[in-house]
Structure formats: C-alpha cells, structure tokens
Amino acid sequence: MQIEVRTRMSQIWRVGLLSTALLAAAPAHAFIAYVSNEKSNTVSVIDTDSWTVVKTIKVGQRPRGIDFTRDGKFVMVAVGDDDTIQVIDAKTQVIVDSLPSGPDPELFAQDAAGKILYVANENDNTVTVIDLEKRARLGDIQVGVEPEGMTISPDGKTLINTSETTNMAHFIDTATRQIVANVLVDARPRFAEFRHDASELWISSEIGGTISIIDPKKHEVIGKVTFEIPGLRKEAIQPVGIGMTKDDKTAFVALGPANRIAVVDTATRKVTKYLLVGQRVWHMAFTPDEKYLLTTNGVSNDVSVIDVAAQKVIKTIQVGELPWGIAIAP
Amino acid sequence: MTFRIAILAALALAATSGASHAADPRYPDWPCTQAKVPEVSLAAVWAGPPLDDIKDAWKSDAKVSSLVSKLAARKTPMDEAEKSVKEFLAGSAADKATNAKLLFAGLFETLNAQRSQVMNGLERTTRKQREAAEKIRDQTLELQALQSATPRDEARVEALSNELIWKTRIFEDRNKVVRFVCEVPTTIDQRLFALGRVIQQEME
Q1: Does the beta-carbon distance from B194 to A300 stay under 8 Å?
Q2: Which pLDDT belongs to residue A176?
Q3: Which of A193, A317, B104, B137 is the most core-located residue (most Cβ within 10 A)?
Q4: A311 CA to chain B: closest CA distance, Å?
Q5: How many CB atoms lie within 10 A of CB A249?
Q6: What ipTM was assigned to the predicted interfaces of this complex?
C-alpha cells in the first residue's frame, strides 16, 4: 500500500519532469523527502532519484517539525506562528486539513500505530494529544518550560519530552498521561532519540554541547558523548538532530554552527568521524533503505546527502530559506 | 504640523534607544538582530588539509589572486563562481592540491576582510545614528520652547520644524538601510562556505 502510493507519486513527478529517459534509467528505489523551510514558509519536495527539488509547497508561518503519517498518505507540518499543524496530501501535494495543536507547535511525535500524535507547544508549556483519525484534540499534558524534543519509546508506553529552559527530559506514561520521571541533562536539550532496541535514550543538549545517554528503565544518565573539533570554539558546537541506524551501531549527530555531522560509534560512545555538510546543520532523516542520510542546513539553505555506508557527503541540494526539518516517505 | 514632528522625533528616539540596548553586551554598537560573529573561523568552513604553509603565497600567484577577486565579488553569480573553481582546478593537473589550498586561503582572507569592513561600517552607522538622535532630541526641545514663547517667532518655528522633519527622515532611512545591510555578513558567510565546499569536493 505504502509502496503503491510512493510509486504513483514518483511517476507523477517524473512525468512532470518530462523525462522518459530518466524513467527508464531510474533505479528501483526512489524516495520522496519533504523539507520544512522555516524562513520562506514553504516545504521543498525532493526526489531521491534525481536529487532535485521537484516541487515547493507554500505552507503557514514558520514551518518546523515535519513527518509523514504512518500510512505515508499525509505529511504533517507544524507551523508555529500560525499555531497549528497543517496536513498535506502526499499524492496531490496540497494542504487538505489542519490539526488542533496548542500555541506555537514546534515538534511532534506519533505512536507506533500512527493513531495518536503528541505535540510540543513551545509557548504554553504543554504537550497536546491529538487523535489522528478524528483529527481531534484529546487533551493536554502540562510539562516543563518551553517543551522541545519529542519521541516515543519503541513499545509506545513512554513519551519523552525535553524542556529547553529547565534542562530536563520528562518521561510521560502514555496511558495515564502523567509525568513519571524527570532526568536532568545538559543545557538546552533539543532532541531525543531511542535506540531501536529501547536500551538507551539519547538526548542532545544544544548549549551544553553534549549527548546524554539515559537508561530508560532506571531514569539515569549512564554516559555522555562529547565533541571536539580542532580550531572551533566550544560554543560553536551545538548538537541538535540525532539519527541512529536500524542496527543501533552508528549514530549521526548534527552539530549546528559547527557545520558538521558527527559519526558516533554507539558501543564506545566516541566520535569516529566528522563530516562537513552545510551551515547550521539541524535535523536529518534516513531513506527507508538506509543507504542515504539527508541533513537540513539552515544557513546555507541546502540539504546534504550522505552515503551512509561510505560515510561521505555525495550531494548538496538547494532548498528554501532556513531549512529545519525533514521527513522521508515510509 | 508640530504634532507630527513630535511623533517623528519620538519615533526616532525610540529607534535609537532600541539600538543602544544591543543584544550582546560585548558589542554595544552592533545594530543587527543577527548575532555578531567577529570572524569566521577556518574550521567552520574548511575540513581540508592545513593552510599554515600558504600564508600570503596566494597573493604572489597572479592567476590565483585574480580568481580570488572574481569569486569574492558578490556580483559574480554563485553558479558562475562554482564553475570557475572547477575549471581552474581541473586545469591544474599535478598542482591541484596546492592550487586548491592557495585559492581557498585567498578566499578566506579576502571574504573575512570584506565581512569586517561591512561590520565596522554598521557599527559606525550606529554611532552616527546615536548622535543624530541626540540632535533631534535637543532640537525638539528647542522647538517646544520656541512655540510657547511670547511673542512667537513664526519664521524660526517654521525653519526649525522643517529642519527637524528633514533630519528625522534621514534618520529613518538610515535605519532601513541598516536592516538591509545586516544581512550582508551572512551572505558573505554563505559564499565562503559554498566556495570552500566546492574546492574540497574537487580535491577529493
């Protein structure tokens, strides 16, 4: 079903590109990436066959968090200054609906079934819970000041929300919607990511310049990843987005104005390589086959394509102004 | 008329008081909302081999230094600039690595100097604007005094009113230009990074 949608979408675009030659020569796996451009108020659509922007969609004010619904039919984009989440039909690439978030939604996470969406509202210190099928608001959870990072444990039982000002990761029981634990991390936690085997939770701290590794059962910090780049001041290294391979062996960490992605060995928790990508690298997404990792570079206004196996940047694609989030069709 | 001048003057003063509360206390004259980064560090834009051995060598290479001037000029479109880098390095054969280092060293120095110049200009303008605002403030008070004096010197009231309108307009126009120029350091950063990236790709 998902594959069907994807194939049909890419066909439409290829026809749009008037390139039958490309269609014949195209590799079997073409994916579609959606990039939110915070400053130009658009979403750029990238075809991973041609590595080009095939469409630019006008959206609301200040688009940041972006993701596909689990069935791949819709793309949700948080437009903070419009206090809502817009829903784009992936087939027609038209905005078809909006979701009732709180004020200034930034990031969101959905459960494994794709039925419930949890939205971090930066301005009123709450997480809004939304029923995705009915597109209705189910309630709010009071969290720390300026909620930012959002993720759900692989078993769906725990929602993690990081608070920018209180420097905490809140563990929320998704059944009772109550905070069950708070873990202190380094300054300005931005993003949270579980290992696929659920044994660790990684949280990036933009100001602290570290990744805190938390034992999600004991709610304790059990390790840290630190970064050092010769010639760069410490404050220029600001970890934000995190991407982990499915085998949990390698993590990629976006370092903001250090303009680099750190490649981290999850066993030793040490950086093995730094890849120069683009200016103010922020978030990232893997293609479903995990061959490529795409990063958003806010100041150079582009997206870098990393060959995951080779750990090498192979391409740069210009998008809109201040690219922030990225989602790739499942 | 007088009312309008009072408003304009108030606006002008509000604008300067805003500017004097700079976001970063280290740079009280910095007028931009964009953070002031005095210098681009080499490591932020370059992951290639060290450039320590280059120093000023790029200046004595006529081909490199003329290419640096062309690439550093914002009037040269980026597409064209990237093409020139590729052509230059493709034609360098055995000297490719050295030429790449020379070229980037030249761009790094030139564009950083360009940035400093723009940033110094912005700070100089802030200081001038502050002086202008003070003058407007003083003259507004002077005008008020003239207006309440008896007998009223109509000719002087009018002359001073006109002068104030004119000065306020210049003040506001300059503020608009400042907002526009505030984007320039970032534009230069982008150019330096993009050119550095092309050079590094060509070296691989």
Answers
A1: yes
A2: 93
A3: B104
A4: 14
A5: 11
A6: 0.77
Query: Which stretch of DSSP H or E encloses residue A184?
Result: strand A178-184
Amino acid at B158: E
Q: Which two tokens stand for residue B128?
A: 């001038």
Which residue stretches of chain A have pLDDT < 50? 1-27
Q: b/e for B182-202, b at 16 or more Cβ within 10 A?
A: bebbeebbbbbbbbbbbbbbb
Tokens of A267: 């066993």
Coil/strand/helix, residue A257: coil
Tens-digit pLDDT profile for residues A102-112: 899 999 999 98
Q: Do B43 and A231 touch (CB under 8 A)?
A: yes
pLDDT tens per residue across span B102-147? 999 999 999 999 999 999 999 999 999 999 999 999 999 999 999 9
Q: What does the alpha-carbon distance between residue A105 and residue A36 come to, in Å, rounded to a whole number? A: 14
Write out the residues of chain B at the interface with chain A, using a CB-CB cutoff of 8 A. Answer: 41-47, 186, 189-190, 193-194, 197, 200
CA atoms within 13 A on the CB side of B40: 29
The mean per-residue pLDDT over the stretch B21-31 comes to 81
Closest by CA to B44, choosing from B185, B196, B182, is: B196
Residue A217 carries which DSSP code? T
CA-CA-CA-CA torsion sign (B168, B173, B178, B183): positive
| Side-by-side strand order, sheet with A94-99 | A63-68, A74-79, A84-89, A94-99
- Residue A251 Cα, gap to closest chain B Cα (Å): 21
Q: Which two tokens stand for residue A172?
A: 């929320």
- Domain residue extents for chain B: 75-125+153-203
Put the strands of the sheet holding A136-142 in their side by side order. A105-110, A116-121, A126-131, A136-142
* pLDDT beyond 60 at B2: no
Nearest CA in chain A to B34: A299
Q: How far apart are CA B30 and CA A293, in angstroms?
A: 38
- Residue in A closest to B190 by C-alpha: A300
Q: Are A183 and A219 within 8 A, CB to CB?
A: yes
The CA distance from A46 to the nearest CA of chain B, in Å, is 20
Considering the entire predicted model, what is its pTM? 0.83
Q: What is the DSSP letter of B107?
A: H
